[in-house]
Specification:
single chain; 386 residues; alpha+beta; 10-stranded antiparallel sheet; two-stranded parallel ribbon; 12 strands; globular
Length: 386
Amino acid sequence: MTTGPREITTPFRPIPLDVPEGMKPNEFFNSTENLNDLEHNNGLLRNDENLLMYRKALGHSNVFDASIIYNTSKVILDPLGRPVRRTQVPENVRNVWNRMNQILISYMHEIFPNPKNHLLLCGEASLDATWPLTSAGVPSIRMLHNHFIVFDKQQLRDAPLAETNNPNLTDGGQHSLFQSYMHDAYCAFFDTLELEILKPMTGDSSQLMLTGYPQGLPCWEISGGLDSIKEVKFWQEYDIILKGFIDFYRTFFSQVSTRNAAIPKNVNFPQQVTEKLLFNNDFLSTAKIVRDQCIKNAQYANAIRWQPAFKQLIYRNDSGKWVVTISQNSIGNAITELLGVVVKRAPDAAAYEKAEPALIKKLLEVRQRLIDADLGESIQTEYWPA
């Protein structure tokens, strides 16, 4: 078996939405108006914390695929004022969200128990408007959401290899700025974070044999597995990883922007930033490389994402261990590509409808578990009852 990233084709039913004249489809799909479709045509469950669970109409997988979005579109009208990462979400909302995550992950593992047959992942990405503001499709919706996805490994085995230079496969060494120049500084900084449940993984133990991904990223095994995911302590450490990443990203790009810049305001780990980053020659010399390139190359400078943009993932590896990893985001890539899975979505209503009954059956089952745990109320659509 050849190891390498896979490209699968996932059929979907075309969405019956009229894009207003003068708007590009990706601009409309990022709009508040499109959330009406998420809720009324694909919504599964909502709660008083403004968390909306829905079926992915343009899905990654038709085995199992759902998302939960922190839908603040009607309570915070300024897109730039909305929470876009876990650390910005109110504590009471985050507590409910963590419980929802735990129930969904446990359900996925129960229904798909064999890691040889299915790849399970749960993750989230920042939706900051960190693309160049003049670019089409800048995410105006700016609302944090996460994914719960199951892939059939046989489908992945049968799928053709993805092009290794695919611009979306940016989590590893050949594309990643962090990994190409600052791997040691990156890992040394994360090593200073105080973690008990999350244990660093070394070598290729975190990689999926099928794809060889994730590549070069810091990874942590969740000691205790699913039992630990049910503990508050795990989710606190999950947030520590994110806070550390944000500190690293902000500090690096502040140095790119301004030579010898002061430590950013309100960093989470000021001592580690001072000792492991601002006194690290590899870290600062890499900032100089990027700064010099920005000055010389307008196109390169325009593509820089100056604010923290991340993807954070929980996944089950080949041996059944549960792993956490985090990566800088890039323009256009999806969370599945962190694990070497490139999804090509194809409009094919007939093919989608063959998989739809089994998919919806599972979504309704896990919805009921959320309702039983007092985590929300069901939503009725033309595809399923309340």
